[in-house]
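Notes for week 9. Today we move from apo structures to complexes. The key idea is that a small molecule is not decoration. When we ask for a structure prediction with zinc ion present, the ligand SMILES becomes part of the input, just like the chain. The input block below holds both the sequence and the ligand string. Read it once before you look at the output, and try to guess where the molecule might sit.
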Amino acid sequence: MLTKAPRGTKDITPKDSYKWNYLENKFREICALYGYQEMRTPIFEHTELFQRGVGDTTDIVQKEMYSFKDKGDREITLKPEGTAGAVRAFIENKLYADTQPTKMFYITPCFRYERPQAGRQRQFHQFGIEAIGSDSPSMDAEAISLAMQFFRELGLKDLKVSLNSVGCPVCRKEYDKKLREYLDSKSEVLCDMCNERKEKNPMRVIDCKNPQCKEAITDIPYMIDNLCDDCKAHFAELEEYLKEMEIPYEIDKTIVRGLDYYKRTAFEIIAENIGAQSTVCGGGRYDGLVEQLGGPKGTSGIGFALGAERLLLTLEDAGIEIENPQSTDIFIVTIGDEAKKKSFGLLKELRDNHISADKDHLSRSVKAQFKYSDKINAKFTIVIGDDELKNNEASLKNMATSEQHTVKLSELVKELKERL
Ligand SMILES: [Zn+2]
Ligand SMILES: [Zn+2]
């Protein structure tokens, strides 16, 4: 047990961590272009936050949360997703009192007790944005555009936005009635789960993976065909913005959201043509959430989240390689004890000048030092021995061309800066 990480967790070792850094840096870079700033919230929150914010009826809250009592008898949960904490922090820190909208992004580990499989860990990582304080469809368009630019710049091609509207409390009330009537007529063929959902959350029946249910509801009424005028106008405006930005999208009437506070826009971004298509991101509007969590009434919000593990798999499937940017510019080979000591002065000088440099730490032979220099892909190898030191010189070897010449130690940094 001692040398085995808990099931569903994965070490990210130096062999892979550069990929994570790359994804995170790219996400930060793109968020900055759109005026989104980072929100960092605790790894754990009061359990109640997720019961209210993610929803008592969801699988996440019912089955998958890492919940425990702390030593002070508080009900605590490791965050299963990023939005609830960000919205709680928005309210607690009174960010609504600042100029709106508030545009935030986050990069965070999340925790769900699920059966581990490829791209799905019990500790996983989410990137996401939340834009709070505007109900304008331009915010929806911006969120989609940001996500698309992120994926595009990672090298993913054939991206598609699947778009739907889940209406608002006004039109959903009417629609739910219509939907229940329809589902009542099908109750004999629907699975138990669907008959249960029918009462609490009829839209979720559309989500059922049971083939018998799927077949039974082919003529089910969809929310997007039953929108009120305000929701229709909101959706039409969003479509105009997407067209203006030439972002390809398709309407997918089957995208549903389980909870009441979700409103209007719901979207997914799908990477196609990489074997099985992969949903890389999901998002939408949650105009009721801020109020639900005790914030000011009528505060709108929209966001999306993506799973980093899943994204890395998708990039791999698409044949996109992330380059390891870590390379050492200089390796110093030393011959003799005096040179070994002197090399520390030289190392410091190089590093002070932001030239990455290293030397042997295992008393290797000269031959083995050269071999190591090769292995770490050093661009130049500097050789110092007693003779060189007498003349305050070093030998500089270009590892790519094998060209080698003598340099004055006092000129070394200057020459390297020119050649690197
Ligand atoms: Zn509506
Ligand atoms: Zn079903």
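The two ends are 47 Å apart (CA to CA).
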